[in-house]
Amino acid sequence: MALARRFPDLGPRLVSAAALLVLGATAIWLGGVAFRALVTVALAAMLWELHRMLAPGADRRLAAGLGAVGGGLVGGVALLVPMGVLVAGALIASAAAAATVPAAARLRFGLAAAAILVAGAALILLREGYGAAWMLWLVALVIGSDVAGYFAGRAFGGPKFWPRVSPKKTWSGTVAGWIVAAMLGAGFAAPLGAGAGLVALSVLVAMAGQAGDIAESAIKRGAGVKDSSALIPGHGGVMDRFDAMMGGALAVLALHLLGLLGGA
Questions:
Q1: In the chain, what percentage of residues exceed pLDDT 90?
Q2: Band (96; pLDDT cuts 50, 70, 90)
Q3: Which residues sit opposite 236 in a β-bridge?
Q4: Kind of pairing, strands 166-170 and 160-162?
């Protein structure tokens, strides 16, 4: 009973997390079309949620169409064109789509949509360019730091990390996430054939994931909503579940472009 009172949403979160884990693990293992399909669906859902939050009065068919087109384009052309071309295309597409939301939210929508699309391309790059083991490393970092932050924050509490943007996030949970990320980096170093530098890179990726979480919290707070949608029981929307993954993926892309990924 005490556990239920302290973690009232634990049951739905565990069930949803288990279902997502099975689906994600299967797609990562299969790779190819299966993984691209999963990324495409996730991107489409997140773009739909983003448009839904920032243009609440707009036609929902427009939001769905934007999501489907954006997700489909990235899923279809990732790795077929240079990354610079893909990023430029994502920026142009996001700017064009931003014209469909109120003027006050256009910059937020454009930046967030571009980040979502580029992060999706980064996930495909990591899986197909580096292999399933590296993709599992990223997933482990995001899930591990999130779980550590959830339980440490609820158990220890303490000062808030950024109360105006994310009132539930604490310093205890944030630091716990860094510690778990370092441990995971050490554990993955040998299997991935990477050096000790992977420990530091893992913490950086976890930090980027936490930044993605905070960025989405800022979007929701500005839109006056608690969750991006109600698509995933216990987790809210797809953005609520994958915001940290998007932040981590962007960090992975930066490490790839800097030549730091693969032999850290």
A1: 56
A2: confident
A3: 232
A4: antiparallel
pLDDT of 144 strictly over 80: yes
- Asked whether 216 and 46 are in contact (CB, 8 A), the reply is no
Residues facing residue 121 across a β-bridge: none
The average confidence (pLDDT) of the chain is 87
* Residue range 98-113: mean pLDDT, rounded: 93
Round to whole Å and give the CA distance between 145 and 221. Answer: 23
Would you say how long the chain is, in residues?
A: 264
* Distance between CA atoms of residues 218 and 11, nearest Å: 26
What gap in Å lies between CA 263 and CA 192, rounded to an integer? 8
* b/e map 211-233, b = 16+ CB within 10 Å: bbbbbbbbbbeebebeebbebbe
pTM above 0.85, yes or no: yes
**CA 177 to CA 112: how far, in whole Å?**
24
What does the block give as tokens for 42? 């996730």
Nearest to 263 by CA among 204, 201, 172: 201
Contacts of 171-176 with C-beta under 8 Å, sequence gap 24+, read: 173/148, 173/149, 174/149, 174/210, 176/145, 176/148, 176/149, 176/151, 176/152
The residue to which tokens 């934007």 are assigned: 66
Task: Look up residue 227 and give its two tokens.
Answer: 């969750």
The residue whose two tokens read 């293992």 is: 29
- 35 burial (CB, 10 Å; 0-12 / 13-18 / 19+) is buried
The identity of residue 235, as a single letter, is H
CB 21 within 8 A of CB 139: no
d(CA 10, CA 20): 15
